Amino acid sequence: MTTVRRHLDRLRETGDLISVTERVHWEGAVAEVASEATRHNCPVTLFENTSGTVRPVSGVYGGADQFASADQRPWQRISQALDLGPECSYTELIEHLARWETSDIDDVTDESAATVRDSGDIYSLGLPTTSDGTPLVSLGLLVVERDGVTTWAPIRGRAQRSQTLRLSVPESVVEWCTSSADVSVVLGVSAAPLIAALQGWTQGQTTPSVPNLAAGLADVSVTTVGSRTVPSDAEVRIDGRMNAVESSVTEETEPRAAWELTCETATVDVNVETVAVREDPLVPFTPLGEPLTDDIHLMCLVETAKLFRRVNNYWGVSPVEWIQLPVEGRLGFCIVSSEILYAGFEWQLANTLFSFSDLFDKVLVLDEQADPTNLARAIDDMWVKAHPANDWIFSEPNASSAAAPLYRSDDENGSRLYINATWDPRWDEEYIAPRVTFETAFSENVLESLIERWEELGLDDLLDERGVNTDHE
Amino acid sequence: MTTSSLRQYLQTLETNGDLHRISEPVSWNLEASAVTMLLNEEDSAVPLFENVDSARLVGDPYRGTQRRPWERIALGLGLPSDLSYREFYEAVIERLKNPIEPVTVSTDDAPCKEEIQTGDDVDLLDFPWPYIHAGDGGRYSNLHTLVAPDPDSEWVDWSNHRTMIHDGETSSVLLLAGEQTPNLYYYKYEKRDEPMPVAITVGAEPAVQYTSVMWIPTGRNEAEYAGGLKQEPVELVPCETNDLSVPATAELVIEGEILPNERRDEGPFGDYFGYMHGPRRSMPLFRVTGITHQTDPILPFCVEGTGVGHSENTTSSMEIGCVGPDATLGLRTAGFDVECCAPWKSTPRTIYAISTEKTNPSYLHDMANFIFTTWGMLHVDFFIFVDADVNPLNQREVLEALALHADPDADFHQFGVETMPKVPLNIYQTPTEKGDIQTGTSKAKTAKAYIDATSDGAGREAQPTHDIERRYRAQKILERAGVESSELSFVDPGEATQ
Prior knowledge:
The complex is a heterodimer of chains A (473) and B (498).
Chain A: H1 4-13, E1 17-20, H2 29-39, E2 44-47, E3 55-58, H3 76-81, H4 90-98, E4 108-109, E5 115-118, E6 136-137, E7 140-146, E8 149-154, E9 156-161, E10 164-170, H5 171-176, E11 182-187, H6 191-201, H7 210-217, E12 222-225, E13 228-231, E14 236-244, E15 265-277, E16 282-285, H8 294-315, E17 320-324, E18 334-338, H9 345-356, E19 362-366, H10 375-384, E20 392-394, E21 417-421, H11 438-441, H12 444-452, H13 459-465
Parallel strand pairs in A: 1-2, 3-16, 4-12, 18-19, 19-21
Antiparallel strand pairs in A: 2-3, 5-15, 6-9, 7-8, 7-11, 9-10, 10-15, 11-14, 12-13, 14-15, 17-18, 20-21
Helix pairs in contact in A: 4-8, 6-7, 6-8
Chain B: H1 6-15, E1 19-22, H2 31-41, E2 46-52, E3 55-59, H3 71-76, H4 85-96, E4 103-104, E5 115-118, E6 139-141, E7 144-149, E8 156-159, E9 163-165, E10 170-173, H5 180-189, E11 196-202, H6 206-213, H7 222-230, E12 235-238, E13 245-247, E14 252-266, E15 269-270, E16 276-277, E17 281-293, E18 298-301, H8 314-333, E19 338-343, E20 351-356, H9 361-372, E21 382-387, H10 395-405, E22 412-413, H11 431-434, E23 449-452, H12 468-480
Parallel strand pairs in B: 1-2, 3-18, 4-12, 20-21, 21-23
Antiparallel strand pairs in B: 2-3, 5-17, 6-9, 7-8, 7-11, 9-10, 10-17, 11-14, 12-13, 14-17, 15-16, 19-20, 22-23
Domain 3-octaprenyl-4-hydroxybenzoate carboxy-lyase-like N-terminal (chain A): 8-96
GO biological process, one term (chain A): ferulate metabolic process
GO cellular component, one term (chain A): cytoplasm
């Protein structure tokens, strides 16, 4: 099982984690540094020296902007956290998430891994604060049980007072359980429970068996608190009682998490009774409202996996090579790469995606040669391969408004756009322009000749000095 | 210090550790371009091939780094290497605002006259013109300045049109009607059945090379703008076989004429779109009348196609470093309130992003229509307008603006009606649509488009440039924690002071 601690150890080993050892105050400054780190594609940032109990860490499940460099794999930290190995490709990760497999949870221990520390002073934890100075809660889970079934749901919120958390949760969770249930809020859990919680409650259907979904994604270890099944690797566990809050008293002004775009939300207060922590607890958090944050990465992958699963089951064949909601587009843009089976297939494909997701209203259709690891090249095809007059297709303005874009927030209907950057299947083969790549631009003889003289040409030294791998050999 | 020759520029590159000399024999037949493409893709040094038959080749000498594509353009202008893109743009704009007249030097003082061949001695095949991609129609010179005069005025246009070598005396030149020099040829010289005198200047000093890709207004003296960029007069020298003057510091000058109603095959060629462009077409014939050159000349070339996606080449870097500032200046001169006009970083030419303070729809409509009627727009299909605090060169920021702020219902304009001229190099056209062999135009029209991806104030948080001090402190904490700013595109030097 890849706990947060194990995940961070691996990131440290591969140079993808930096420790901030100088004193950074949790009030404002930690979130500010985290914002800069995510915005500028920095490694995972661990704050070792803040005045509170926890050690905040940002970017744990995020990743770099793929435009920034060919080496960037924005999903890599998540695939690592799911223990899928360093060579896991984007498509393999999506296929893994798309399976929605459930597994029994065998590894239930009776002992709570985190130790009860006090009777519930949220402020003393030293969670990073929002701009108004209240502790931020992100990348955590609400744990609640009904009729012997425990579910885990995504949360976003803040401390309301020293012993009250005010959280946004999927409305369907509140409807599913009683509104005054005993609950736990867990922070610092591994990737599988976080992803499973999104799959269970934000995908247009209610799937309460989230712990089993999580176990289908990766090994998870759980323990029992009260009657609830709780991830035992949680770094911080806050137990208390949940109360629904009337919508009239919740005036949201702060940035929301990405998952909140995907479902109706409700506001609840958790009256904290006890706080349990591990020794030197690590709490992943994300500076909401910034680009490239962890919540965007997680939601992009979860929504993509849903679409991949549904589209490929829909056709009876599997022409779709890959789908991506690039994190750079903040859930407002969808790319699909597919074999175009027949003329007009791209129209069907784009509209299928629109019907399966409410998040975006722009779809880019690429041919099956497109590479999911090269976003820059994929977007280039939108500009050079799609005919501006014929291949940018706008719908009649009768479509419901998409959730991610910031226009038409009044829910008025509007248009959708898909861009067809594939070769027209009606074209003769001779019309198709071959791509210019290292492999296609030079004959094997030329490449072999160069490889034989690699050293004489000084390329070994040159590329080695710059940290370049010489896979071309 | 301003750089006065290609050699001096390469020396500066070498001093910076950015030049890779290859003294082993390398063939012009794909080998030089294969090495160059590899180094382009790996963001490595510029290769100088010192042992290629009778001359030297340099692959993509002005290619910038993938993170800072304007970096080596700045080097050629003697600008500091650590300028932010905004500082670089403003520096180039200031220089373009202050043109300097050229001076004429004697043949004896012109390096490009060290060797002179005219008459029967002329042989293009004496030089190792590279065969760049397997599948190309032939060997090319594709990084040069074509000097061509207007027959009705004193105006001389400098431009960059690739030429495919056919034999010792002739080549075909890619002249696409709609651009300045091709228009002179098709609509003046050829209509009068007159040959067009030209000089192809290979390996001219950086300021000249940069000027030849800029959108210098018709009728203006390009040499003056090159002087402005250089901050010194450019030295010109008369040709041997026609009345043109050429930059004296060029490595090699091919003098000749483009003949009326004569055509030769051109292409296919692995083009700037990143695709092998076809079909083979007929283009105007260039006949050589003289060649002058420096001893042991250095011939620059560009591996087109590698400027797409995550790599750079000279074309894509010059688009950002030269055309971008020039276009920004052009729009400001026309009275538009433009923060910056810059090409989509990984897509040379087809798409430009414009950041602007004024975002009301009628203003953007007027600006777009102004742009689409200028001659430089033949290659550009799209403009995307973004808020003033969005960096047009940051593709993430622009894609985010497109995704979140461009309403398919209201913000995409001029799609769906094919009314505008198009360059026949576009790969979305069928071969039938692409070619008119007589005038180098496309048979079809296209639909240029502009996209309003400005926020209109709706739900958008400003980019954090307004809070520079806090941002700077946060960045310093990260730097002290070990973030390598140069490798992680962390802090754009100079940006924090704006």
